[in-house]
Amino acid sequence: MSKYFSRTLCVMASLTVIFAVHGCKRNGNAMVTLAGSTAFQPFAEKLAEKYMETNRDVRINVQGGGSAVGIQSALSGAANIGMADLLKLPAEASALISTIVAKDGIAIVVNPKNAIANLTAAQAQDVFSGKISNWRDLGGSEAAINVISREEGSGTRSSFDKLVLGEEKLAPKALFQNSNGTIREAVASDPSSIGYVSIGLVNDKVKAVSFDGVLPTNENVKKGSYHLSRPVFFLTKGEPSEGAKKFIDYVLSEDSQSLLEKEGLIAAK
Question: Which of 47, 65, 193, 267 has the maximum number of C-beta atoms within 10 A of its C-beta?
Fold first, then answer.
């Protein structure tokens, strides 16, 4: 059992009751439950709302918990569809059927008051590992750098660690948040902080910095010039149920993929 997988067991124990209803009916409606990636969660919720507008006999229940929870919930049958945003699925997920439904870039973000506009790959690695701990060493103001990261078990964290940290470890004094949204809010409230979020979640509350001179945009991800990105997977244990399959097909439809593009993600194809 991998460390990535085993960390989720205690989390799943508390979520089992929440997800136990995934196969039942609520108010006479069939229930399809999704669980996992908090980066993709708001997009899945938006798609679920639109799907239910024309499929009133189905209830789509979207839960978060992180990519590791998405994998475990699919394996255990606690959810019809697990959601994971990872560069590569762990060995445990080989027992699942995976479908790429989108691609997602990762932006390094700072507070808008921060003058820093670009980090080289080496600088980013040194900042997030704690080797560079003051903004003055990057040409900024005299202030300690507050690193903000996702918790272990997060697909965004796993992907970021591989892409940016490589063999280095995260800074010992890093602070942790449980979603892309809470990282964004933490960076927005602290002029000395730095974090990372999905490109689609960048707004005027934070400033996305260039990575090796390339702006974090979906266009640059598509062109291959911006390298911090990963796929988003839907995972099922065996062939999906009829309700789950219909929703997966809906997410992969041209209209839904166009919606994801408008909302800040990259279409699967």
Answer: 65
CB 20 within 8 A of CB 34: no
Residue 95, number of CB atoms within 10 A of its CB: 12
Overall number of domains in the chain: 2
Question: In angstroms, what is the C-alpha Rg of the chain?
Answer: 19
pLDDT tens, position by position, 49-69: 999 999 999 999 999 999 999
> Per 3-state DSSP, what percentage of the chain is helix, strand, and coil (rounded to 5)?
40, 25, 35
Query: How far, in Å, CA of 264 to CA of 269, rounded?
Result: 15
At 198 the three-state DSSP class reads strand
Q: What is the pLDDT of residues 182-193, one digit of tens each?
A: 999 999 999 999
pTM of the model: 0.83
Do the bridges between strand 193-198 and strand 97-110 make them parallel or antiparallel, or are there none, so unpaired?
antiparallel
Domain around 40 = 3-104+231-267
